[in-house]
Specification:
Two copies of one chain form a homodimer. By secondary structure, chain A is mainly α. Chain A is 61% helix and 11% strand. The first copy, chain A, has six helices and three strands; from the N terminus they run H-E-H-H-E-E-H-H-H. The first copy, chain A, binds a DNA duplex (30 and 30 nucleotides) through helix 1 and helix 3.
Chain lengths: 127, 127
DNA sequence: AGCTTCCTACGACAGTGGTAGTAGAGCGTC
DNA sequence: GACGCTCTACTACCACTGTCGTAGGAAGCT
């Protein structure tokens, strides 16, 4: 039903981000990283999330030493893609224009980003 | 907790969109519009959604004749704003760049949109 | 061998979202 | 004035998400 390939809650995504940002880790390490980011969750909560992420096919685990090590199986880019797509679909039947407009107008972009966007736009014009 | 001011589910949002797209309506009319859009929901389901939207402060109703007429209290733009913000926060700690990049690269834009974006970018450069 | 510590498995529970049924009020028609 | 249609209020229910507790195994310290 949902347009999202990968249907993840906010807290699950936060866990996945830790895997993206810090690479393969044990439950405990993930928990510590979450704590550093101000997300105060219990060990078993993290375990639950990692288990669910694995069930959903977006992470996997390998036994190592005494503890399982979890790693992301999907990239940040692919999650971005599906979530952005879901958002466009929900709000504008899939049209990207209004959201790009909104972003360029209302959100801060660094000078580098602006340059890159200008370049992309120029490339588009080349067609 | 969630970054979204207005925390709406997909189905709730679909109802809100009908209010945006067709203006103030009765429950029955909303239901019919949803059916036209392929969303086969029961009358009472629509009623539930409208009631919830009202509770959440994003719609309101006025008694009129025999039935309540519901209308949106928040604009599509403001919902776009908060959902886009939530998405940026979730995935990139709020940075807009990567998502703009993704959109320009991967989503179809009309010629008009491209022109508009180029203009916006030019304006940004003017600062 | 017993105690401590760390790990995983499993279960639990409340909140929310999606979906709908039923009951009862108001009104039009015979 | 009884029947039926339409509307709203209330309740229900399941799946999913966020959150954790408890139980029990492995492994080391004393």
């Amino acid at each position: 039903m949902s347009k999202r390939e990968v249907d993840l809650g906010d807290a699950e995504l936060a866990v996945l981000r830790v895997l993206w940002d810090f690479g393969p880790q044990t439950v405990r390490e993930v928990m510590e990283h979450l704590h550093e980011r101000g997300r105060r969750v219990a060990y078993t909560t993290v375990l639950t999330f990692l288990t669910r992420l694995e069930q959903k096919g977006v992470a996997r685990s390998d036994r190592n030493d005494q503890a399982y090590v979890y790693r992301a199986k999907v990239s940040r880019a692919s999650v971005t893609k599906s979530r952005v797509k879901a958002l466009l679909e929900e709000l504008y039947d899939g049209a990207a224009g209004p959201v790009v407009m909104h972003l360029v107008e209302n959100e801060r972009l660094t000078a580098d980003e602006v340059t890159q966007i200008r370049k992309l736009i120029a490339d588009l014009d080349a067609n």
